[in-house]
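thread: overnight batch results

M.L. [08:02]
morning all. the overnight job finished for the chain we discussed friday. pasting input first so we're all looking at the same thing
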Amino acid sequence: MKKLLKWAAVATVVLVASLAVIYRAVNRVPSETLSPEERVAVIFDDGGCVSCHSENPKLPFYAELPVMGKVVKQDVDSGYRAFDITAMNEAMKNGTAVHPVDLAKVEKVVLDGRMPMAKYYLVHWGSSLTRAKTDIVLDWVWNTRKAMYNDAVCEALAAEPVRPVDFSVPVDPAKVALGKALFHDPRLSADNTVSCSSCHGLNTGGVDNEQYSDGVGGQLGGVNAPTVYNAYYNFVQFWDGRAATLADQAAGPPLNPVEMACESFDEIVAKLAADKEFSKAFCAVYPQGLSQETITDAIAEFEKTLLTPDSRFDLYLRGDETALSSTELNGYELFKKYDCATCHVGKNLGGLSYEPMGLRADYFGDRGLELTNEDNGRYKETSLERDRHRFKVPGLRNVALTWPYFHDGTRATLEEAVRDMAVYQTGVSLKENEVGDITAFLYTLTGKVGGEFLTNDNSK
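M.L. [08:03]
and the structure it wrote out:
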């Protein structure tokens, strides 16, 4: 018996040693002769990332087996819903810029060691992330991010996923002046009662603090009005992304039958042209005259100036170690720990991607309200099933002033929004002190206008 045990022990040692040798052989670090992007591409390929994070992955044979196949397909559906890696792979292949949200998502799962999942690399040897592979990917993320931005972030924080707001961007002052006047002009509505500022009050955080905004005749819209401050940084406008630019966005409400209810821009042009003084001033800047194109261009030029730099968080990013309290700093660390900074990235802490509402739990099922067309989000524009309930991520700048929250305006306080976003987007139930610390951090995102911190008259 002792002899048998001895041979069993020897066999175990030999097996473990053999497996270790095989593991090292199949899990080699990509050659240093490759570029950083090529090395990362090899790691992603070895890790089988495309198997779950693309629209039409090539599935293994066992995906057709009764039990295992169901698990595989669930993982693929979940992975693709959370992150489509296709654009990032193409960018690395073509030497073009990688999207900052893609960088943030890759960074987080690598830091957490979440990908590839154990049930994947136990079957696919060589796919797991070793320490060396992890370092290669993280170095690439951080160096790519540093090269992406040209700002005054201090060296210690240069690889952070968020950036400070610009103090200004290039604009035409004459167009800005016209756009400001038009932004506040109710003649853009059919009955001369509603202006852009009616729903996007500049003294109320760039919103109206209503669940749904009032339009012509007291009609209510079907989606919460997003803030106009820092909208310049959004990659598209509106929750569903139906406007590609600020000018496109400005063209929407005047013709919306619920909002400003004009039949066409001809109606607006006629009213403005009748104002001889305004028309003369307008044509001096736009020789081509009043039109939908020139009116919306002027409004867009004004909205470019609605930046709110110099928040306390911006001061921290630029190197002021005293700008944030220990509670606020801990809130920022929790903000990153719980995946908030995988979507809320960049200068506006958001506005750069579409993401599903209810990634980890059924938001709409739990909400208990009848589904509306607005709840479909991006799906309204594309009719692609993957886009159902997918929305443009809102920017978080000045978020303490822009209640109520979510596209449906169902959360009255910032604490509620923080608590529920953790549940529905990350599957985490935050402790009350964590909610408090993250909320404290979000208050540091309130920026300045004209050298003074932005305030909200509705909070008085």
